[in-house]
Amino acid sequence: MAIVATVTSINIDRLDRHSIAYFEPIWGDLQLFSARINAQTAPDALQLLQQGRELFQAQQFSEAKRQWERAASQLQGETDRLDRALVFNYLSLAYQKLGQWSTARTAIATALSLLESGDRTDENSPEVLSILAQIFNTKGHLEQQTGHWQPALENWETAHKFYTQLGDDEGAIGTQLNQAQALQSLGLYRRSRQVLEASTISLKNQPDSALKVTGLQSLANALRGMGELERSRELLSQSLDIARGLNLTEAIAATQLSLGNTARAIAENAMALQEQERAKQEFEIALDAYRKAAEIAGSPVLQSRSQLNQLSLFIDRQQLEYTAELLPEIEGSLDRLPFSRYAIEARINFAESLMKLYALKDETRGGDRRLLVGRTAELLATAIDTSRTLEDPQAESYALGSLGKLYELTGNFEDAQKLTEGALGLAQKMNAGEIAYRWQWQLGRILAKKGNRNEAIAAYRGAVNTLQSLRKDLVAIDANSSSVQFSFRETVEPVYREFVDLLTQPTVRPTEENLREARQAIESLQLAELDNFFQEACLDAKPIQIDRIDPHAAAIYPIILPDRLTVIVALPDSSLQLYHTLESETTIRQVLDELQQNIGRRSGNNQLVLELSRQVYDWLIRPIEVQLEYSQIETVVFVLDGLLRNVPMAALNDGRQYFIEKYAVAIAPGLQLLPSQGSEDLEFQVLSAGMSEARQGFPELPNVKEELERIQVQLSSQLLFNQAFTSDNLQQAIAQFPFPVVHIATHGQFSSQADRTFILSWDRKIKVKELDRLLRDRQRDVSNPIELLVFSACETADGDERAALGLAGVALRAGARSTLGTLWRVSDRSTSILMVRFYQELTENVGISKAEALRRAQLSLLDDRRFKLPYFWAPYLLVGNWR
């Protein structure tokens, strides 16, 4: 788990430990109100307001609350509604920080009602507008934290209007950033982009100032949170240049820290794509930025954040030799921290790094490990004491849970359980699901280690259910961001895998309910991966279960676990079946990787391909092959996991024939699919687009012209070819007529990273999110969906284990009922033959399914001596509804 701190401007705060930066309310000028406070009846009110603000900014939220409650009490008899409204606005902020949501809602409602009562002649005065802006910003923050994104958006829009009327650029830009995040969480991605661009323009039009520096930095952090890393780096570089020109030392340090976080995120992306040299360079850039930030930072907060980021990066890269001299420096910075929530979070952050260091230390070095455990326990005990002194239940929950994790790590499961249950209770009391799921997961691990399987299953079930309820919030946390302790691969994915592991243990006979839960967990993991891929909750149509829509289809759900490959099978009118292959994850991955590397190359070892494809057949199909025949199965639908996604199931071999010779094959990204009208009802009106000429560094595809021309002869179609295939023309054609089939024959790439998933048009690359937008625009007409989306010359990114996510993601995000794509780029001659045959089968055989039409087209290549190798016919995948 990456343990990284982040720095934001004075008006940007993190949502708990997330990477999302939210604009905190502008405080306004208390001098505007001091003249109206009656010196005789409320002599201390102004002072109490100011003291509360200082305590709040020092993250001493409980003390701030007390000061503001005293101010509210003093002002109770006052007639000036503005003063009282301001105090209740502040109180709502404090209650929110303390997780007291109901009280926070009452306070902000009181503030608003005070402004709406009494004399309205001054409603456009700067004083009223300033307080209204703060109230609606606070109210938006409250709605967001309680999961109500639409009301949050509406309140932030209102706050933005008031800040704009005031000419308050800082407030206006800050609330635009909030709106962008809310829009993204609501799935309104184009509007989110427009709001961000507007805030960028507003900032660029500002003269160079401290406001511009912090505004650019905040916008860059938000973009990093949305996965737009190069744009984030560009804006941070601009911020740094301005800060240097103005000699703003602390702003320079803060921007360096953000640059380090962005470089680290870029490095982690490169690692996922096996771009080792790029990753190394970016990690060095990140470390250099962290060092510079720590060296020039004047505040212990900024300095400690920079040092903690360095430490976590050294540990993640296992460069342990560099940690020794950094540890005492961090200790010194922690001792200088002000008494605040951040002081608690920093100690927890440090403790998390020490726990990772403990796990990496050689067990023979017992003394070192004991010292690490002792120091970690001290840090967390101090964090717990401080959180209780500050009366901060959120911080206390994190501290208790982290200490529980330490005890779990050292085998003290009884104390680990008690501490974790305490942390969970606090999180649930605050309705803080993003905290609670972690402790439910941790409790499940501890109970499993204690041998309490049923209780462990219940805890994991709670964690999974909580994650499901957080779906839109989780996708707003950037998986590529290294600004906080969040990593989908490390803090979300394992919850599902470990839950399935518990439910399907080979030594325990599972119940039907266990298998249904395991199958549902596999689906939830699939969708969570796709949400994380796009940073958006992407499946919003009404789903139906695939094993209920076709009486001649079987569904197979394999999942790779640490000690085995587990397979769940659903047959029509039958109980779920379970079987295992007891091989290590390492062995399974080696076989799949070797098969993928050879089958996807024309020069690959074809004998080895046969041997490995038979081995995978033995794992997935052999135990169920008799039942498939007995049940008269025609189509087998795979819900694939991990590296299995990059292996064509059609090419599995039983020793006599390929799987495709017996069954049609489809791939589903989950148990639930968008409904399909079926090919028998499909009107074959096709929008065809493609390029045959070399373009933008990509080679020519000479057979694309023949492929598209033959489709045009067979079917009613509109053609965009070569120069006519521009992004604007594609958008226009899609908007003008609801083509049920869209066929794109051009270079393209599917990757596990949305930024690297694209198709090539004549004028430029169309990245997946833009393609999604083009296709989804016409999806508003739900009576005329895209029934079939075809990519006939695209491929998955080489070296990217999760590249097939790109294809599945395009399929789901576009709302296409079925998508046909390829795992690797093959001869465009064989592709042209297969595509023409595919459409021929669909048009000439009434009632044929798309999967069966593809099967027959693949067999036509297999029967052609020129294309007998699986390299030519195996990579074609039908994703989604196969009917």
TrEMBL record:
InterPro entries: CHAT_dom (IPR024983), TPR-like_helical_dom_sf (IPR011990), TPR_rpt (IPR019734)
Protein's UniProt name: CHAT domain-containing protein
PANTHER family: RAPSYN-RELATED, SLR0380 PROTEIN
Residue span, CHAT domain: 611-881
Transmembrane segments: none
Gene3D superfamilies attached to this UniProt entry: Tetratricopeptide repeat domain
Source organism (scientific name): Oxynema aestuarii AP17
Keywords, sorted A to Z: Coiled coil
Coiled-coil parts of chain: 58-85
Phylogenetic classification of the source organism: Bacteria, Bacillati, Cyanobacteriota, Cyanophyceae, Oscillatoriophycideae
